[in-house]
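Box 3.1. Reading complex inputs
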Amino acid sequence: MNRYRADFPIFSKENDNSVKAASYNPDSNDFQSESEGENLIYFDSAATTQKPQVVINAIADYYASYNANPHRGSYKISIRATDAMEHTRDKIKSFINIDTKEGEVIFTKSATESLNLVAYSYGMTFVEEGDEILISIQEHHSNLVPWQMVARKKGAILKYYYIMENGTIDYENFLSKISDKTKIVAVTHVSNVLGFVNPIADIIKVSREYGAVTVIDGTQAVPHMEVNLCRLDPDFYVFSGHKLLAPMGVGLLYGRRELLDKMPPFLYGGDMIEYVEEQETTFAEVPSKFEGGTQNVEAIVGLGAAITYLEEIGMKNVEALEQELVSHAIEKMSTVPYLVIYGDKEAHRVGVIPFNIEGVHPHDVASIMDNDNICIRAGHHCAGPLIAKMGEKAVCRASFYLYNTKEEIDFFVEKLKGVRRWLGYESE
Amino acid sequence: MNLSDIYTELIMEHNSNKVNRRKLAHANVSKRGHNPSCGDDIALEIEFDGDVIADAAYTGSGCAISQASTSIMIDLIKGKTKEEAMELVDTFIGMIKREITDEDKLEKLEDAIALQNISNMPARVKCAVLAWHTLKDAIENGD
């Protein structure tokens, strides 16, 4: 039994109402009764993680004791809400080792918004006609489509560097594509489809030598390993709260101060201004300059609690636990006939395994797994160009986190063996 | 929801049936239907003889439900007028949305009634209706 699983109420016995799930009523739209409790096997943490009780408590406590609009009103609970936000900002800095002199953390609503902020504010201001934007084929649409937009609007050239046969990034291909014309290098720290950890330290170092600004998507990295931004020294680094045990609705952007200071605001409005007159406005300093509008305080408070929870366990332990799960899963899944796992089985990957079952569409696999309360993802995983490069239209993905167990994986593997029978194939 | 209500023999048969999966030599209309989130992607081709659907076929890829639904639909609409085909589309979508439950009204859907249970699987509704929306689009808007 996993020692952390009990911290997550969605897996608790009291929550066991799997019978109700079978009689889902679309008219009532009552998704709450769908909670699977003890029988739930949740293998979709790369999409969003479940939440520990400490995070849920922190949110409840915020609403029960100090809900107020931060930065407004000079009264105690508003100050407390402001402090809670700033406390989380400080926690993030120590969690991923940010030097406040070098850079700042900005709250957004999602990693997608963080990347759009960089594309609109930095990209649209500093990328010029004929410049090159170099991105990896592994990118999630959120670190790809905004750069297509910038390239089109500014007359810049969007170039890709690709993956090798074994699915890992082709670093030589990156080196052959970067040049003095390259103004932006975008890359994901960890692929959300393949789970491979990219050599971003090397990519950042080389990019800087060419004068290119690096935009790193850390969404699939920060929840699964120790990340040290002081050591990596990217120009921009983004991730989201909800893949890190925190609520949906908060994303993070780290940016180097020197760049943030010269960038125009992204969202104009309240909280981001200094003086406003009828025709002119001056803007607040970083980070407020980029935090227009009331922030999602409950999510930010929840994120603070999530980071404390993970720090108490220790990211080295989280990583070790996940590595044990992923090795076990690869070993067991490799015994399933007609099952193909994508990418090098030996390469360093987080708890993410993309796979397909020959002759069965991923969406059918996911529905058949759901019948046994196993949650996996099927589709293109918001990485269309990568899936196409892999020669597929869609794949299944199982992803693990600290609350999963080897017993769950064994059950999952047994069920995988039966999938083809549902589609009318005679044997396993 | 029992899986065997979804993955029925009929659906399996149509999923692997290649008769309707081909290119038409003289198509008047070709229409692409796509579910971006799950990757179902079909191209529906129709050859009209005046107002009548003389032949229809599809190419593409997708899950068993989307492929079977497309094949079953093609069997059903051949020889029908545009108007009749549009009525079948509305009846089918009505069935999946549970707006039409009267068995007499559903009868004209023939084999497509086998997909009625999809209405119990909210995640798969869009797979079942893809071909039917594509047909509607093809008839209403042409190429």
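In summary: Residues 5-51+314-422 of chain A form a domain with the Aspartate Aminotransferase, domain 1 fold (CATH 3.90.1150.10).
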